[in-house]
What does this fold into?
Amino acid sequence: MRSVDLAVVGGGLAACSLVAQLQQRRFQGTIGLVEAGRGPGGRSSSRESRTAPGWRLDHGAPSFNLTEPPPDELRSLLNQMEREGYLIRDDQPIVGLNSAGRFTEAPQNAQLEGKRFRGQPSMASVCEGLLKMADPLLQTYYNKRICWLERDRNHWHLSTDDKAWTLAARRLVLSGNLLAHPRGKSLMRWDAIPLRAAVTKGFDPQLDDVLSCVSASSASIRWTCMIQLSNTQRPEITTNWPGQIWLDEGAQNRWPVERLVLQPQQNGGLGLVIHGLQESEPCITPEGGGSPAEARERMFLDALPGLLACMPRGESLLKEARSWGVMRWGAAQPLDNPLPSSLQWCSSSAIGFCGDWIDTPGFGRAEGALRSAVNLAGTLTANS
Ligand SMILES: Cc1cc2nc3c(=O)[nH]c(=O)nc-3n(C[C@H](O)[C@H](O)[C@H](O)COP(=O)(O)OP(=O)(O)OC[C@H]3O[C@@H](n4cnc5c(N)ncnc54)[C@H](O)[C@@H]3O)c2cc1C
It folds into this structure.
């Protein structure tokens, strides 16, 4: 039977910084990291295309920021990532856009405060670099969505939907809250919340508190549209051009878009990711039939001529533009009820939690994911 000392579910920023930090803290034991997707990154991953080799578009977070000075351990992790070339300071200007299609000052937004960083060459590189740091300790398992959790006296048992793949672990960390949230029941057609089913109510009061906090929490829904804007070099846009263009309220009333993110490619091409507005209710399909994804894509592409008007030779860009389609983020960013950091580790059940849904500076953003991971790594090494 496959077995590790610590199983970490998820391969996003929180999970990858947790395992890298455990390596830095000389954690004693084997670690298995299990991710539902094809690779690491989660909401900070990059999309590749079979038809456009070398292209990578960051379809989730395009960068991240630190609003407060990080603790020493996080600073040292980020410094090492910068030294090894996976991470760079993001100094590209950010501007606003008004309803007349003219540039204005950047809006006030928690995602733009403080120091900004981005992955090099793309956001997925951040998680890839963190996993390299954790290498000697780590076994990674991709394309494995954990649907079942069981707990016996000393071990957690994790398995995929068909139970064909299983992993036993002395300790468990969940970096997302799907296995603890009622939304998993409708999304995954589960009869019960897997974490609740694994540990009887009353056995671990701390875990009961975690489950009630998580069940009261909600997250935003968001769509992004990935566009291969130009295959040729566009120095007039890639040099000194804003990296992100945020629409002001008037512009958002005209186009249903939060921001445009320009992504120069290593091969000289230029990509564009259009971020839709945050939505808190299940999406209403725009009129005109087709699947919700097709309707969303049409909506973004209809807005493109107006949005590209702010760019030099926007019309010629429009002729070259090729859409890679849209991505729906069902839980893009947590909105409320952060999990208190005092509940990040439940010792009676040997389970811990990290991610942007923990109550730390940066809640709902990459900063929160990173900080929560460093916090939890401290607890895990103190208890190992
Ligand atoms: C469109 C968009 C734009 C954003 N922009 C910004 C921004 O500008 N600045 C910023 O700071 N933040 C931004 N964010 C938020 C940022 O992406 C997240 O805060 C951060 O990436 C969260 O990292 P995480 O590790 O906590 O979670 P995730 O990245 O979600 O990682 C959790 C991982 O766990 C995996 N997983 C979950 N359940 C299971 C299971 N049962 N079995 C196996 N694997 C599982 C998931 O596949 C996922 O990879 C944005 C998010 C989106 C969607």
